[in-house]
Amino acid sequence: MYTRNPTGNPTSDSLYNIFMKYRRVYAPGGTYFFTVVTRNRIPIFSDPSVVETLRMAFKYTLARHPFTVVANVIMPDHIHTIWTLPENDADFSTRWRLIKSCFTRNWTNRPKDVPVWQHRFWEHLIRNEKDLERHVEYIHYNPVKHGLAQSPSTWPFSSFSKFVSDGLYPEGWGSNEMIWEGKKIME
After folding, report:
1. Which range of residues forms the domain containing residue 32?
2. What is the pLDDT of residues 68-80, one digit of tens each?
3. What is the value of pTM for the model shown?
4. Number of structural domains, the chain?
């Protein structure tokens, strides 16, 4: 319920509580696309040793709260990833809290007392096979879109090469406007 001012209209504070609180969809066993951004878009992942610290934070979290990484890309100032959660588990928020806190504690060269991450993250529940394909393509093409690589195959911090080795993408996908020719990812 919201509060009203003397004129009978809702107060701006109560409207914030109604309209601005994040509403997340928690679907046990769901597949989600996430975007996580560094504070002020500082390009901390330009340093490969920092990327390794992030990978360690993912491994730490996976060991405690399993999930499947379907696809991912680590950009200089943000991460895109797709996860599938275990069948009876919908708690992606705890996983992100653990990844962010483990990374922050273990990043040895970070400036102290400077926030590393933007508050919150963006998530999207994958609805079907076509939705998954579009998000996987978005992830793998992201380094090209941002002008960081000539093709997805030349970006080192992505799941693209695994998709090629698994036969889900041809080697040159994403170069010269090549279109999706992969196999079904979700079965």
Report:
1. 25-165
2. 999 999 999 999 9
3. 0.83
4. 1
